[in-house]
Amino acid sequence: MKSLYKIYLGLILSLIVIGLLIIYNASGYSAVKDSLAFEHFFNKHLVKVLLGLLLLIVFSVIPYKYYKEWSKPALIFTVLLLIATMLVAPKVKGATRWINLGFIRFQPSELAKLVLIIHLSNLLVVKENKILSLKEGLLYLLFWVFLVAGLVFLQPNVSTSIIIIVTSFALLYVGGASFKHLVSIGIPVFFFGGILAMVFHHSRNRLIWFYQSISQGKTIPQVLQAKIALGSGGWFGVGLGHSHQSYGFVPEAYKDFIFSILGEELGFLGSVTVLLAYFALFFVGILIARKVTDKFAQLLVFGLSFSLLLGGFTNIAVVIGTAPTTGITLPFISYGGTSLIIGCISAGIVVNIARTGIKEARI
């Protein structure tokens, strides 16, 4: 159905526009404080938006079936890129996650999420008759999941590694893997992962702060200011460009904590509308998956849609204080480069499947 991909595109573009409107004012204070033009960060983000939209168009015309052949080489390249990141990337806030390409700081873990979803979707088709077998089917797929998630975890980037594992397990279950196998493997993995997270100073502090916020009522300053912003918005918001909390009160106001400024300026109704937009994207993605007959396409759309939804709700959970502080961005809205561009590429793939996969199903 042509209307499905049009609705999908409309939702993506709406979120991008909202992001541009919020970032314009939310980033101004930080720019001026650093002796830069008020529009400095907005202009940089706009360039990335245009690049992202260009890639969305490009990937919307590339036949999705090509990814089957290239999924394994692409994943091997991504694994090498993750290793290189740990070896040569500079530490930023205690983590080695970014490679500086000059015009953009590239985050390989974002690429890893996309490529892993593509490869798992392909493997679930190839090993369709063996996926219920732990030894002959599932373990091979889990090797790739834990290899990628493990390398991301060691950066350290605990939150992204969790999203990779949760998304992968959801995809494996939808693809036919045994729920019993996934649970029996998943529980000890998250248990030992939590213990290992305490080894890293970066993640240990965040987990301790979050625990204290629950057990002792100690509010994390970042989260406290975010809640003040959300509360200040009321039902209808203070209006675009009239945020007070973005003036140095909310750290990363135009980045990871942009949802708090969105809530302040657009109010409770605006916040709920954005939440519903993410739900709608996932729902439309599921409708697209149900319309196509190619299993690879079905799994690919589900994986990409689920990853987007999970990322959005993880970011919002952090902002409202129900999850430890992470570096997860708000999809299509937060200031950033890699997450926005990879998000646009993912959207382009879904659009291609909606346009060509549904058409093939009718023939």
User: Which class best fits the helix and strand makeup?
Assistant: mainly alpha
Spatial strand arrangement across the major sheet: 1-2
| Helical content (DSSP H or I, runs of 4+) | over 70%
Gap from first CA to last CA: 13 Å
Q: How many separate domains make up the residues?
A: 1
Q: What is Rg? A: 20 Å
Provide a brief overview of the structure.
The protein has 363 residues and is mostly helical. It is built from 13 helices and 2 strands. The chain has one domain (2-362).
Explain this structure to me?
The protein is mainly α. The chain is 72% helix and 1% strand. It has helices at 2-26, 28-33, 40-61, 66-88, 108-126, 134-153, 158-174, 179-197, 201-215, 221-233, 258-291, 295-319, 338-362, and strands spanning 99-100, 105-106. Strands 1-2 form a two-stranded antiparallel sheet. The chain is globular and about 60 Å long. The relative contact order is 0.16. The mean pLDDT is 89.
